Amino acid sequence: MKTRNVGSRIFILLALLYLYVPIVVLIVMGFNESRYNSLPFTFSLRWYQDLFQDAALLEATRNSLLIALITGVACMILGTLFILGHKALQNKSKQLVRSFVMMPMSIPWLILGLSLLLMIRAVGLEKNLFFVIAGHIVISLPYTLLVLEARVQSMDQSLEDMSASLGANPWTTFWRVTFPAIVPAVVAGGFLSFMISFDNFPISYFLMPSGISTLPIEIQSSIKFGFTPEINAISTVIIGVSLLCLAVVGLIMGRTLMNMIGGTKKNV
After folding, report:
1. C-alpha distances in angstroms, 10 versus 5, 7, 14, 103, 263?
2. Alpha-carbon gap, residue 93 to 86, rounded angstroms
3. pTM score of the predicted model
């Protein structure tokens, strides 16, 4: 038994090293003065300075931030509306609608992006930012809904019943009881959607109109013509943004959980 436990721990350690050591190397080489990522290591911020002077990368970053921001806000609104409408449906309809909305999670993004492009071409339309944002919303919304559903299922449903028994209409109950309770999950889902949209490549690659680029597309284009340390620098920035979003989501959900536990103890 001890031998098996040691073997499992070694396997997990090797798997983690395989996943994260390349990322650490990328981050470290972003601060290396050598253009060819060669040793010995010499600390330098040269590539970050060049990065902030690269007009193409900066424009692509602005586009990615704008698309991700719109996607995050849209997913927050649509997710909240879905949770409200989901309660009014019958059990069979609930499962059908939920399966339909969650379906993009089971479809590879590459296939989904290509399918959306073929659909646009079939109806005679041209690629534009609207379709890009719509595609990002389609793939990001299920993740927002997962966070919201977890919060709604943990809520005390008697609070809404008590609000109704005191004469409040459904709209008042939502704004005074339901919405304040799910706000942390709404914000967390928005951050999660923002992160997914910001890092997405397949949907943007297939649907982005010519002359406009996002950060993942710009990185892919740069690599095709030769790798430069600026890619290390911008990749480090992307990793930092992703970790920041995850930290915010974890902080919000952690505080929500602590508040729920505290409320339960008071009730007991």
Report:
1. 9, 5, 6, 36, 41
2. 9
3. 0.77
Q: pLDDT tens for residues 173-213? A: 777 777 777 787 888 888 888 888 888 888 988 888 888 88
DSSP lists the bridge partners of residue 147 as none
pLDDT tens by residue, 116-158? 889 888 888 888 888 999 999 999 998 888 888 877 777 666 6
CA distances from 242 to 58, 77, 237 (A): 18, 22, 9
Q: Torsion angle, CA of 27/30/35/39, rounded to 10 degrees?
A: -50
Provide the token pair at 90. 């019958």
Q: Where would I find the H helices in the chain? A: 2-29, 46-51, 55-88, 91-102, 109-122, 129-154, 158-165, 170-173, 179-199, 202-207, 215-224, 229-267
Query: What does residue 141 show for φ and ψ, rounded to 5 degrees?
Result: -60, -40
CA 136 vs CA 68, 74, 98, 204, 246: distances in Å: 8, 10, 18, 8, 18
Cβ atoms 231, 223 nearer than 8 A: yes
Which amino acid makes up residue 101? V
How many other CB atoms are found less than 10 A from the CB of residue 143? 19
